[in-house]
Amino acid sequence: MAQLDVQAKLAILADAAKYDASCASSGTAKRNSRGGKGVGSSEGMGICHAYAPDGRCISLLKILLTNSCIFDCAYCINRKSSNVRRARFTAQEVVRLTLEFYKRNYIEGLFLSSGIIRSSNYTMEQIVEVARSLREDHDFRGYIHLKTIPDADPELVRQAGLHANRVSINVELPTTSGLTRLAPEKDVRQIEGAMREMKASIADADDAAKRFKSAPKFAPAGQSTQMIVGADAASDADIVRRSSSLYDRFGLRRVYYSAFSPIPDASAVLPLKRPPLMREHRLYQSDWLMRFYGFTSAEVRSATDAQGMLPLDIDPKLAWALKFRDGFPVDVNRAPKEMLLRIPGLGTKAVDRIMSSRRWRKLRLDDVARLTLSIAKVRPFITTLDWRPTFLTDRTDLRMLVAPRQQQLELFTA
């Protein structure tokens, strides 16, 4: 491997990290201070923007330790047989980069993943060393997210949890058959075993923290995973079922979905086109329904078509409501919160405001309209003091009335 300076390595390994969906970059104008004019930059290599549960935007240095890999997963741009430019950071180079970016107020933390070099244990040792050095040698108190390697020694994975705020163990693909076909060197039993051990370690740490003030923290932001959508034949129903199982069995904080992107010199077993990005969006919406709206996996899957796919033109909650109209309309002045959350067009904040407002007076349609972006979407599914949808809920063309209007964008519109 040719000798590269740190900036060249950063350009390669920051770009290689973009396929991880665990933190999403927000759009921004490309401005920088190169040339001696101005101060700062909005397009620093490797800086991505993630969002905390309370809505704060957190800037992270998102890089790979290396994009070299001994595995040959068909869907991965960094697979062993891929013809890409390779680079590798040392552990101390990552530490220095993180500290220098942090001191300049570019970032608030580090997101570190890696290809596998030499062995899983060797690579995991390097990842852990980065986090250990930041925490113990430099007293770094920013956010750290580490991608761990499932078949590494469990003690190494445990050490990652001692230093990181969050750890990720990727399931890669939604089905066992897909993983066997496209990544035969990876074993679903090892992946799930690592998740199970991580869940147990987090639970033990939480229990210790309740009894001892001096108990060390262990992955306080929990564990997450990522799966690729569209690389195999898995349907949306398969993905929703798998996600629900992962949440229930391993106590995950998040399941991230990443639409498969065709790669250079791809294997013949991969699709030639990427799936619609809207499919990824609908899966995130279905994930939200299970996590925040009280829907079960079976209920979300019931909104799919005969092929197990969620509709792309309407969101999953609306698709479910149109299939099960016998539960509507809902009286917003009397229905329990669990039923209000199932009304298309009402989010969690709108439902909380309805619950609060109706304690003082009966709500009218105008009151509900002030709490939602699209009262036209809500009207067929509710009753208020002054509104009854009568036969609107049962109309055969209701989907056309409530679905978002499709608009053809003009190429040369300013």
TrEMBL record:
Pfam families: Radical_SAM. Its cofactor is [4Fe-4S] cluster. InterPro entries: Aldolase_TIM (IPR013785), DNA_rSAM_put (IPR023874), Elp3/MiaA/NifB-like_rSAM (IPR006638), Endo/Exo/Phosphatase_dom_1 (IPR051675), rSAM (IPR007197), rSAM_sf (IPR058240), RuvA_2-like (IPR010994). Keywords: Iron, Iron-sulfur, Metal-binding, S-adenosyl-L-methionine. Gene3D superfamilies: Aldolase class I. Residues 59-286 form the Elp3/MiaA/NifB-like radical SAM core domain. This is DNA modification/repair radical SAM protein. It comes from Sphingomonas hankyongi.
